[in-house]
Amino acid sequence: MFGQSQDSIESYIDSPEKLKNLYRRVLFVVSLSQIFGGAGLAAGITVGALLAQQMLGTDAYAGVPSALFTLGSAIAAFIVGKLSQRYGRRTGLSTGFIVGGLGAIGVVIAAMMNSVILLFASLLIYGAGTATNLQARYAGTDLANNKQRATAISTTMVMTTFGAVAGPNLVEIMGQFATSIGVPALAGPFILSATAFILAGLVLFIMLRPDPLEIAKRIEAHKQKYEQKNKTESFNKEINKRGLTVGATVMVLTQIVMVAIMTMTPVHMKHHGHGLAAVGIVIGFHVGSMYLPSLVTGILVDKIGRTAMSIASGVTLLFAGLLAAFAPSDSMVLLIVALSLLGLGWNFGLISGTAQIVDSTEPSTRAKTQGKIDVLVALAGASGGALSGMVVANASYAVLSLAGGLLSLLLIPVVIWSRKA
Fold first, then answer.
1. DSSP, residue by residue, 228-248
2. Most confident of 235-239, 325-329, 349-353
3. What is the mean pLDDT of the chain?
4. Which of 63, 134, 220, 253 could be a cystine partner for 363, CB 3.0 to 4.6 Å?
C-alpha cells in the first residue's frame, strides 16, 4: 500500500491519536482538492447549455450538454469507484480529476473548430471531473466514526464552495481572456475547468498518503479477526439494504429536480434579456447554496438524524420549484432566491443520503458500492438535464419548475416507509 509496511498500518490500529491525526490530514487534503474541483465543475453548469444553444441554433437541445457530462459522470462514477476499491482513493480520485481536465480541453478545441460531435464527446469525458468531485466526499468518511460521518462529508463539500462560487463569477473574465487568445468566449470557462481539475488530481496524487480507504480496510480486517460473529449479522444486513435503498432514492430524486431546473435557468434568463454576468451571479448563488451550508447541514444530519433532513430536502425543493415557476422573469432577486433554495434542498438531500450510504457499507465493499450508487445519481441528473430542454421547448420554464417541485415531495413517503420498516 504505497510503501506502507504492516508495522506502520498496525500503528494506526494501536494508536487512536495517530488515527485521529490521519483523519484530520485526509480531510485537509481532500478539502484542498475540492477547492479546485469546485472551480472545475462550474463551467459546465454555467455555460454548457449556452454553448450548445449557440452551436446548434435551437433551445430544444440546450439540455443535452448537461445530460452528456452527467452521463459521462455516471460512467466515471462506476470506474472511479472500482479503481478506488482496488487501488485506493488516491489512484481512483486523481485519475478521475485528470481525465475530467482533459475533457474540458476537448470542449475548448471543439468550440474553436465549431465541431458539435467533438463537443459532445468531450462533454462526456468532462463528466469524469464532476463524478470525481462528488466521490471525493466519501474519502473523508473512511476513517470517521458514525457520529462524524455527515460532518466529514460536509467539511469537504463546504471547501468546494470557494471554487464553485468563484467559477461562475469568473465567466465574463474567462470569456474575455478566451477572446483575446482567439477562442470563443463561451469556451473560456472550460479553460478554467481544465486547469482546476488537473490541479485537483495532482493534489490528491501527491498528498493523499497513506490511503484512507486502505487503512480503513485493514482496521476492519483487524476487528473481524478478533470479534466473534453473532446472531444479529443477518439483521444488520437487512438494515444495511434498507439504508442503501433510502439513501440512493433521496440522492436520485434531489439530483433530478436540481439538474433539470438549474440547466434551463441560464437559457430562461437569456430569453428575458439577462446578460452573461447576470447568469453568472444567479448560478453563483445557486452553487454557493449547494455547498456553503454544508458544515451546518452535516452537524444537523449527525445530531437530528438522516430522516428529518431528507424530509427537509423535499420541502425546500418544493418551495424552490414554486418560486422559480411563479417569479416574474425579469426579477433577478426572486430568481436568486429560487435557485438558492434549489441548491439548499439538494445539499440537504445529498448529505443525508450520503450519510445513510456510508452507514450501510463496510470498507471492504464501500468504494465499489458508492460508485454504483453515484452511477444512479448521475443517470438521474442526465435524465433531468436531457428532459429539461424538451419540457421548456414544448411547454415553459414555469411548467418545468413546478413539475420539479412536485416531484421532490416523493422524498417524504420514502423516508416515512424507512422509519416504519
1. ---TTHHHHHHHHHHHHHHHH
2. 349-353
3. 85
4. 220
